[in-house]
Amino acid sequence: MDNYIGVRFKASAEQSEILSALLLSMDYEGVEEGEKESIAFIKEANFNEQELQAVFSQCNISYELSTVAQQNWNAEWESSFEPVQVDDFALIRAFFHEARAGVEHDIIITPKMSFGTGHHATTYLMIQLMRDLDFSNRTVIDFGTGTAVLAILAEKLGAAAVLGIDNDEWSINNGEENIAANHCSHIELVMADQMLNRGKADIILANINLNVIIANLDEIAGACKPGALVLFSGL
Length: 235
Description:
There is one protein chain. This protein is an alpha/beta fold. The chain folds into two domains: 3-73, Alpha-Beta Plaits (2-Layer Sandwich), CATH 3.30.70; 84-233, 3-Layer(aba) Sandwich (Rossmann fold). It has helices at 13-24, 49-59, 73-78, 121-130, 149-156, 169-181, 210-215, 217-222, and strands at 3-9, 30-33, 38-43, 64-69, 84-86, 90-93, 105-108, 139-143, 161-166, 187-191, 201-207, 224-233. The mean pLDDT is 86.
């Protein structure tokens, strides 16, 4: 089981956006942006501190490193995870947070070592965009599903069937836990190598880093029904 390196840093919104883009182009699997600090994660085997120092020195920002074993992830995220509210449209929270009145869609997640809590700007923006789309009776693919938060929201918005795809078995297992916690019944999660021949979709949600999107453009295009809508985020 892979360990991860966590990179904690404090930066302005503008600096955080720049750093997130740079880190996601360097094999970092996600950047969770909190109110007080941000945390970027990369598999320990892919970590190169010399490259990291070069990036942060450009912005004159310091950072702290920690090693996080997958089995210890609960303690890590519980110590810093805060609910995320997207206007009055959606609330993303852990089971130990209270629900809030006046929010249309309440989503409960346990992120573990998966990404997609709504803290990252790309996930937040994707949720905002989903508000204006018609998901009724549509088929949806959530490419890079992570916590499955977008897949869960798609079902809540009326999707007939949702296929969530990820290349990490840990994310698939975590996503299935979150699907059950939200009482969803029209979502299937599969590993990325099982994407082919799974049918085509009316809407594809691709909230993942640029390198992964580029590497899988043919597969994404091949999964589109005629006239399909594809939302890219994480670029």
